[in-house]
Amino acid sequence: MKRIAALTSIMFLFAVPARTAMLADNGGLRLKVFVSMTDREGWYAVQIGKIVSFSSKDEYSKTDLFEKARDKSKATVRLYDAEGINDGDTFYVINEKNLITAKMTVRTVFNSASFGPMLVGYGNFRLSSVGDRVIQRAEDEKSRYAYVYKARGDYYENIGSRGEAVREYKNALSADKKNPGAHLALGLIYMNQGLDQYAIREFQEAHKNIKRLYDNEDKFLLLESIADINYRLVYESSIPAKLKDKYRDDGMKACREALAIYPKSEKMFFYLAVFNYRNADPDDKTAKDCLLKAIELNPSYTKAYIALSELYYRHDNMEKARMYAEKAIGLDSTSKGAQKMLKYIESKERIRE
Fold first, then answer.
1. Is pLDDT of 125 > 70?
2. Using CA atoms, how far apart are residues 303 and 327, in angstroms rounded to an integer?
3. Three-state SS for 125?
4. Using H for helix, E for strand and C for coil, what is the string for 150-199?
């Protein structure tokens, strides 16, 4: 996982008010906005940027049967600060009277060489104008500080202060309970401590918002970790069989999603193979294909050779079972799994004689 702390100064990590000062220089931190001319109560919001242009969005809703592009359905916004803003976030547009004229969903956040941080959002902007302000609910704005706590947690984890790291990750989740990065970081700590049930809960929460993870490296790490822990629960624990069925299904799903991101992971192919053939309703063909793919990616993958030997042994093909067991021994002469398979094969061959 990329560690923000490695790229960010200590001063920045421990300076939460910095963004407040930045926004104060751009029209004030808080303002009251209204839904209509008759709205007397309103609600507090934070200004995050201004609209610089409109166009027609280039993606259509699944409910739009005619796929008709609508004018002013796509807005480009110049931001004061992009930290903590993610695809899928919901913001609002207000006019000079602080009336809400549109609701937008963030489609993408990017950095412009000319204008700095920007976002593109989708919505119905028919009543909005270029120059209108874009706002976020004040109660939602605090969730944008979660990235600071997450960065602090990464810093403490990097220097070995695990207790402090856990505290900061939990602070991040207090600010933004759906923050997938903090859930993933906590899950990794719990998994390394052998607290599998705590770890799997954090991974599940992270997976609910996996699209918010910054890059594919973190997404793959999450999915790989889910596969790791489910494999361990199914094949290295004594939990009830019914629970193992669920963990097996979850593990297979995680493997497939991980391979969609990084199709050259021999470990994910190996896990997927084992999940497929070590169960009450095995799919040996899929398992064999996955194991052969794992070996293609890593010709020195001993576990894959042992699994192939086991598969051919189950199908009474002692010639290939022995071949793969011997390949595993050739790669690792101390492999207990390979030695065990050779004993099974030799025993069966003696019976046939």
1. yes
2. 11
3. coil
4. HHHHHHHHHCCCHHHHHHHHHHHHHHCCCCHHHHHHHHHHHHHCCCHHHH
What Cα–Cα distance (Å) separates residue 79 from each residue in 46, 47, 129? 12, 9, 16
| Three-class SS state of 137 | strand
DSSP 82-124: -TT--TT-EEEEE-TTSBEEEEEEEEEEEEETTTEEEEEEEE-
Entry field: residues in the chain: 353
Using CA atoms, how far residue 8 sits from 5, 170, 207, in Å, is 5, 20, 26
Name residues whose C-beta falls within 8 Å of residue 177's C-beta, 6 or more positions apart in sequence.
Answer: none
Three-class SS state of 209: coil
Question: For residues 101 and 128, is the Cβ–Cβ distance under 8 A?
Answer: yes
Answering whether pTM is above 0.70, one says: no
How far is CA 59 from its chain centroid? 24
C-alpha distances (whole Å) from 84 to each of 79, 138, 212 are: 12, 14, 10
Sign for the CA dihedral angle at 26, 32, 36, 38 comes to negative
Cβ atoms 318, 345 nearer than 8 A: yes
Look-up of token digits 């594919």: 216
Tokens 């695809």: give the residue: 87
pLDDT over 60 (residue 211): yes
Nearest alpha carbon to residue 110 among 128, 85, 88? 85
Q: Which residues contact 267 (CB under 8 A, 6 or more apart)?
A: 224, 227, 294
Q: How many CA atoms lie within 13 A of 203 on its CB side?
A: 28
Q: What is the 3-state secondary structure (H, E, C) of 263-328?
A: CCCHHHHHHHHHHHHCCCCCCHHHHHHHHHHHHHHCCCCHHHHHHHHHHHHHCCCHHHHHHHHHHH
Q: What percent of the chain has pLDDT over 70?
A: 86
For the segment 7-16, what is each residue's pLDDT rounded down to a tens digit? 444 444 554 4
Q: Angle between the 266-277 and 302-314 helix axes, to the nearest 10 degrees?
A: 20
Report which of 293, 331, 325 is spatially closest to residue 306, judged by C-alpha positions.
325
CA distance 306 to 285: 16
